[in-house]
Amino acid sequence: MKKILGIALGIVTSIGGFLDVGSIATSAQAGAAFGLSLLWAVLLGTICVIFLVEMSGRFSIVSGHTIIDAIRKRFGFAAFIVPFAATLLVNLLVLAAELGGVCVALQLLTGIGFQLWAIPVALALWMLLWLATFDMVENGAALLGLVTLCFVVAIFVLGAEPVELAAGFVPSLPAEDRAHYLFLVVSIIGATIAPYLFLFYSSGAIEDKWDKSYITANRVIATLGMSFGGLISMAVIVVAALALKPAGIRVEQYEQAALMLVPAYGGWGFYLFVASLAIACFGAALELSLASAYSVSQAFGWNWGENLKPREAARFSTTYSAFIAAAGLIVLVGLNPMKLTLFSMAITALVLPLTALPFLVLMNDPRYMGSHVNSRFSNAVVALIVVLTAILAVVSIPLELIGSK
Amino acid sequence: MTIDLIRDVLDTQVLDRRKQPLGKVDGIGLELREGAAPRVAYLEIDGVTAWRRLGARYGRWAARIASRWQHEGHPYRFRWSQVLDFGIDIEIDVDAHRSPPLDLERWLSDKFVNRIPGAK
Q: pLDDT-based confidence at A381, cuts 50/70/90?
């Protein structure tokens, strides 16, 4: 019974935790600019993230290690620290994007500029982590995150053509604007395969003391949870394609994206979008702050844990405090939040091999995994998607930078 | 039983006798002996040691920063005879509370964490 409850909760958390600022921004822009033709990129990212999340759960169950802890031990401090620092920096950028997403939602609601919200939102996030036990916060955020299902419902309200939907799952290149199309492919995959997702998941498996009886449960949670999450990202593309593209609205700002639910729900659509944006970003910001502090603590062997009071884990709580403060400052500078989001997602895709490839090496090491090492198939799926996306990122990020000037 | 020091010991998590984290094995000291095989003199837990593995300059930088919170007893060393259990982690027969590897933890508690309401 406890296991079934765990599975249900795992699925709910991943639905709630999956959709973040990255998925909303990339999917909204993709649907508005290229219609349904980028659905395949979400599918590709979702397949990869299912494999990675399942692996990270299996790794922690079988080896008893968290991923970061094991990568440092297997590769040594000197080889570990530079890629690790790069991953943390990208986490910081993404956290700034998530905070920015909450601030933009508040701006849409109140008309007060998003920069002014940076400090109150960062403070609220920090206070929640400081005062509440995390179980409570995470489950609460995940349940509230189910509001994002409104994107799925909107597809039925608007009525999508099944044939056109299916065509979107076949990779294709558009006749024009190819550079931006490829940049969006990279950002979408980066938004889908966020490293903090599987670092977080592996820490959770250790915290909840999963043993080998959880191997199947882990597979079910990873597959169903991530599939549902991917489904919502796809729904955002479809809704943007149906509601924004025919009107010729290009999503350069969140203000434009905010209109996408209006054709389906009328005036309420605006509020549903704002609520989805705020809740999804805030939930992701919570996970991201914690995942970063977990990673640093595991890298240096400090005590860590979601239910420790700040006093019992001073280094851990100082780490997330510093992260949130730095991310708040980035929002305060006032970069265009949409652009910041798209670029941090593309850079996520760029640095993904730095964590994913060493992790694959661990998954094939019988000293950690015993008889539970990866199959060749799952190695190939993850390595191929991660490496190809990173190569595409190297090409498309400079092109986008030149193009956007 | 043979142990591969680099593979199995270096960078392994160290816990105290109550399973509280002390840090990682950041360095290993060998003792060279006349006419006999070298033996492990001590294992070291110290962030500065880890950074020094990147290069002497990083070690100096780390030492300068760490001098803000490190009291005496650094680098912290323990002997193999103190090891209680050797597996995924290394458990040693000491009390983490008040031990030198937790200087940063105590420094942050005093300067920052405990001054903010709600830390308990």
A: very high
Contact B23 A314 (CB under 8 A): no
Domains and CATH numbers, chain B: 5-115 (2.30.30.240)
Per-residue pLDDT, A334: 84
Task: Name every residue whose Cβ is closer than 8 Å to that of residue B66 and which is 6 or more positions away in sequence.
Answer: B47, B48, B74, B104
How much is the pTM?
Answer: 0.93
Check residues A197 and A371 and name the one with the higher pLDDT. Answer: A371
Please give the average per-residue pLDDT across A226-240, as a whole number: 93
Asked whether the CA dihedral B63, B66, B67, B68 is positive or negative, the reply is positive
Nearest CA in chain A to B101: A302
User: Cβ(A299)–Cβ(B47) under 8 Å?
Assistant: no
Distance CA B12, CA A363 (A): 18
Mutate to test the interface with A, among B14, B97, B108, B111 (most CBs of A within 10 A): B108
Instruction: For residue A337, give both structure tokens.
Output: 């939040």
| Pairing mode of beta strands B36-45, B76-78 | antiparallel
Q: Which domain holds residue A356?
A: 2-403
pLDDT the model gives residue A1:
61
In this structure, the dihedral spanned by the alpha carbons of residues A364, A370, A376 and A377, taken in order and rounded to 10 degrees, is -110
Number of domains forming the structure of chain A: 1
Beta bridge partners of B1: none
Please tell me the distance from the alpha carbon of residue A58 to that of residue A375, in angstroms, as a whole number: 13
Are B24 and A301 within 8 A, CB to CB? yes
The distance in angstroms from the start CA to the end CA of chain B is 45
Domain of A122: which CATH number? 1.20.1740.10
Reply yes or no on whether the pLDDT at B72 is more than 90. Answer: no
CA A136-A327-A73 angle, 5° bins: 75
Dig out the tokens for A224 from the structure: 């169903």
Q: What does the pLDDT look like over A122-140, one tens digit per residue? A: 999 999 988 877 677 767 7
A314: chain B residues, CB-CB within 8 Å: 105-106, 108-109, 112-114
CA distance linking residue A240 with residue A218, whole number of Å: 33
Q: Is the pLDDT of residue A392 over 60?
A: yes
Q: In a 3-state reduction of DSSP, which class is residue B24?
A: strand
Chain A, nearest residue to B12 by Cα = A73
Cβ neighbourhood burial of A174 (10 Å; 0-12, 13-18, 19+)? middle
Look at residue B88 and tell me whether its pLDDT is greater than 80: yes
CA distance A256 to A28: 9
The per-residue pLDDT for range A245-302, each reduced to its tens digit, is 998 888 888 989 999 999 999 999 999 999 999 998 998 898 899 889 999 999 999 9
